[in-house]
Amino acid sequence: MTPSTTDTQSPLDLATFGLLGLGTMGAGIAQVLAASGRTVIALEKDEARLAAGVAAVTAALDGGIRRGKVTEDEKAEILSRIRGTTAVGDLADVDAVLETVSEDLEVKTSLLTEVAAVVADDTPILTNTSALSVTAIAAALPHPERCAGLHFFNPAPAMRTVEVIHALQSDERLIDRLEALVDSLADKIAVRVKDRPGFLVNALLLPYLNDVIQELDDGLATAEDIDVALKLGLGYRSGPLEMLDMIGLDVHLNATEAAYAATLDSRYAAPPLLRQMVAAGHLGAKSGSGFRTGPSQTS
Amino acid sequence: MNQERKTVAVLGAGTMGSGIATVMARAGHSTLLFDVNEANLQRGIGTVHGFFDNSVKKGKLTTDQAEAAKAALHGTTDLTELSRSDVVVEAVFEDLALKKDLFGQLDDIVPESTLFHTNTSTLSVTGIASGSRIPGRVVGTHYCNPAPLMKLVEVADGRHTADWAHKATIEFLHSLGKTSVVTQDRPGFIVNRFLIPWENSCILALEAGLGTKESIDAAVLGALGHPMGPFRLLDIVGMDIHQQVAMRLYEQLRDPRFFPPPMVDRMVAAGDLGRKTGRGFYEYDDTRLFGS
């Protein structure tokens, strides 16, 4: 977890990251990057959000200590490599920028335009988007060949897969560099994919989750029995409905709507029950109610 | 071990039938394995005995327990010998007429209180139940392969299944140490209902160049917490089996997500059925499916 400081260790590529957003994904990614020995400068709108993000990383590391996977020293080192700022100008010297802000093209491109104005012209600008086109984000920025997608799954420290997304404009050498970056992270697997709606994993996962929600609404079985059947029958670590509660039903709705808008493929069309759950504020674990969480449980 | 020792008949001594017979004999039920073909029957009994011998080697059963389980199992090719069955579990070929005919014949052999379970994976429980003059006693109980190792059983009532039969089925499965889930009598129940479109979509993604078989397997493994990627799983299931199950579900649902993609037909035509032929999506030196 902690990089060696011996002479044989080659210096880390992309050693300092400017990380935009320290929410759920941002905090998880900050932990992963810092654990690889990299410095993370996290940009947030205000101090309260920064404090919440650092608290989330701290809590995750404390969990790791309880499970015997992280030492107190490692926790201290990781936290010491994560710095917060609310000033875009503090990112001027970073080696790469990775954004994890809300899934809104306008929000992402306007912030990245500000950041692009302070970093070098060849500083890689990466997006952790799961729903938007990396090509569209790159197109809004100067020198789009330095843009690519670097898509972590939630929770970032636990999920091994990282999709490296090749936008139409991406420089091939940048993609190679990002694959090497992912290889340098503890226990992560780089999967190189094209910039298609949903990339690879979500292109497969979103229709499956929608299908489950529709069958639940159609009374195939209870939410619990659907989860139990797929876990015991197929050995899945989590059932689809508990997975949806963890992802956040609003997050899933946003992702599947974006994929539907980009493809007009009916498998991505949001099932009515999903919209109703989100309208009612039943967003999953984070709201205390969802398909398998709390009083709104549909079974 | 089960408190109440029942007499359980299992119809069909193939993979699923011998697996289910193993479950019954291990739970202490007097188990009668039926097959029309003597050679199949002996092979099935051999499979059950082999499983118990292995359990002893692995320390999961004592020699005495294994001998008791073997002693609880008998074979027959004569349907009339099933007359004292409390529960009949049919696990014959996925042929509606055959299954209906067996239940109809058993109506004349067993008491009216005998439960009829069907292990169908792709046919309608209601359709199979219509073969019995007492469709109320017929319940769908879909075991997973390998039945002695997999805890899940999907329970589906037909249109005319009686309450007593449903309740007795749930209790019986519980006594076997199985976890039952209750689902509707719809094609694919829960597991195949979601697995088949999932596997098809992964095959289509491969054909469309979203990734390689290795990258798709790795991505699914690392992002979704599945025990293996879709192509490793298909190689174990067998492409011929996937094709058959997908086609049967497609024929009933007319939903294109269930239709086996052309790559499946090509692989079957080429004899690349998966591990059992040494080559599917991947190549294998060892064609055994679950170890020895």
TrEMBL record, chain A:
Site (Important for catalytic activity): 151
Keyword set includes Transcription: no
GO biological process assignments: fatty acid beta-oxidation
GO molecular function, one term: 3-hydroxybutyryl-CoA dehydrogenase activity
Keywords: Oxidoreductase
Residue ranges occupied by any 3-hydroxyacyl-CoA dehydrogenase NAD binding domain in the UniProt entry: 18-195
Pfam families: 3HCDH, 3HCDH_N
Pathway(s) this gene product operates in, as recorded in its UniProt entry: Lipid metabolism; butanoate metabolism
Entry keyword Oxidoreductase: yes
Top-level division of the source organism's lineage: Bacteria
Gene3D superfamilies: N-(1-d-carboxylethyl)-l-norvaline Dehydrogenase, domain 2 (1.10.1040.10), NAD(P)-binding Rossmann-like Domain (3.40.50.720)
Domain 3-hydroxyacyl-CoA dehydrogenase C-terminal residue range list: 198-292
Family according to the record: Belongs to the 3-hydroxyacyl-CoA dehydrogenase family.
Protein name, per record: 3-hydroxybutyryl-CoA dehydrogenase
Annotated organism of origin: Intrasporangium chromatireducens Q5-1
UniProtKB/TrEMBL annotation, chain B:
Protein name: 3-hydroxybutyryl-CoA dehydrogenase
Biological or metabolic pathway of the protein: Lipid metabolism; butanoate metabolism
GO molecular function: NAD+ binding; oxidoreductase activity, acting on the CH-OH group of donors, NAD or NADP as acceptor
Family the entry assigns: Belongs to the 3-hydroxyacyl-CoA dehydrogenase family.
GO biological process, one term: fatty acid metabolic process
UniProt entry keywords in alphabetical sequence: NAD, Oxidoreductase
Record-annotated 3-hydroxyacyl-CoA dehydrogenase NAD binding domain positions: 7-185
Domain 3-hydroxyacyl-CoA dehydrogenase C-terminal: 188-284
Cited PANTHER family: 3-HYDROXYACYL-COA DEHYDROGENASE FAMILY PROTEIN, 3-HYDROXYBUTYRYL-COA DEHYDROGENASE
Binding site for NAD(+): 12-17, 35, 94, 99, 121, 145, 276
Superkingdom of the source species: Bacteria
